[in-house]
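Sorry, I am new here, but would you mind making up a protein's amino acid sequence and the tokens describing how it folds?
***
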Amino acid sequence: MAKAKKSKEVVVPENYVVSKDKDGYMNPVMLAFFHGKLTDWRKELIKESSETIQNTLQETELQKPDLADRASAETDHALELRTRDRERKLVNKINSALQRIKEGEYGYCEETGDEIGVARLEARPVATLSLEAQEMHERKEKIHRDD
């Protein structure tokens, strides 16, 4: 597994298109691009979570006289909490990805050490497995689920 070089502040060009170019896979500009993408995504999730806590969850009145209204409010509340829990887990995955960037391990499969691939990382920046390893993992999971 190739380790990325530590460098000073790398500037990502405006309209940068991620591709494996002459500088190679996970070059400093590419790493800076994914670092920025992950950081922005984390900020947005935290902002949405804070807004939900301040606006939705604190203002939700669960003690409604009408049973249908109460059930509806409780369902909405539970759905919002599940959504926030999924986002909390996603923030943890983003933090792990940022740590892998810092350690020079980002973009490489945790199981095989192979490149995950630019297209996969653009679609899922928190990916830790190559497409092949992910498919193998899902096949194994399906086999165990069917047992």
Q: What stands out?
A: Residues 109-147 form one domain. Residues 67-103 form the longest helix (37 residues).
